[in-house]
Write a structure and sequence with these properties.
This protein is α/β, with parallel strands linked by helices and 296 residues long. The protein folds into two domains: 195 residues, Spore Coat Polysaccharide Biosynthesis Protein SpsA, Chain A, CATH 3.90.550; 58 residues. The chain is 40% helix and 20% strand. The strands form two sheets. Strands 1, 2, 3, 4, 5, 6, 7, 9, 11 and 12 form a ten-stranded mixed beta sheet that branches. The protein has a two-stranded antiparallel ribbon with strand order 8-10. Strand 1, helix 1 and strand 2 form a beta-alpha-beta unit.
Length: 296
Amino acid sequence: MNQESISVIIVTYNNGHQIRACLSSLRQKPKPQQIFLIDNHSRDQTREQTQRFIRDNPTFPIQATWNNQNLGFAHGLNQGLKNAKSKFILLLTPDAELLPGALQQLMDHMQINSDVAMTAPQLLTPSGAIQPSCRRFPTYKDLIFELTGLPRLLKSKIHSHWKMDDFDHKTVRKVDQPEATCMFIRATSLEKVGLMDERFPIFFNDVDWCKRFQFNGLKIFFTPRAQAIHNQGTSVSFKRAAMIWKSHQGFYRYFQKHHPSAGQKVVNYCLGFFLIFTALLRSLPILLNTKTKGDR
């Protein structure tokens, strides 16, 4: 196996306005040996834009799969993981673009640090500002803290432990969980960790996955030497109310899975009701506003 071989996996859903820029950003060294694009039944121009890119770049190693239904991000990602044959695997969302040299920097970090299983780059907004992308694993305290809205109300006085407000994302460090926007993974680590859990179709699949990396004694690092632009949330923002419910559902399933003792199950059930209540509070204004606009 080539020591620098890379398989790239991109899962798309209505990313027609972004996919060409994402694919173009992979034109750098080391050149990926495989690029798997798995589309979750997009209804926009994603397929047309991808096929046009493939025609314009016939030597680019893209293998596109067009699912006839949307079974979630985790399912699509697993489709690619099952076919990846390279030593390293890059997970990249279609709303992200690698900056020049990012692949080489990620590769260098993994080769210098042979005990590291995953490395994530620094994410930037389209304007160039640093986008916080690393978190600690959530606790019950973090959940209550976030859902009460205290971090937003008292932003200058209270910092979120879960969201790592104390980290400026400017230094190399070991982290619990980088978001799945861009993850560079040593393929052999999947022999211990396995595929993504499809019970988390869109939210918290990355948190659960990284938790399993940690459980198996595998290290995850963040490096600002590699960078990517992230157009945050554009894939899901058009269904904001539904995404709030799915996010809260993912939170609940995470605690059910990773806090399974008898006593914790009771707490989990109580938190489930709290999550339903807060999801209602967050989504109702969005739904009412949508209805109001529709009535005009």
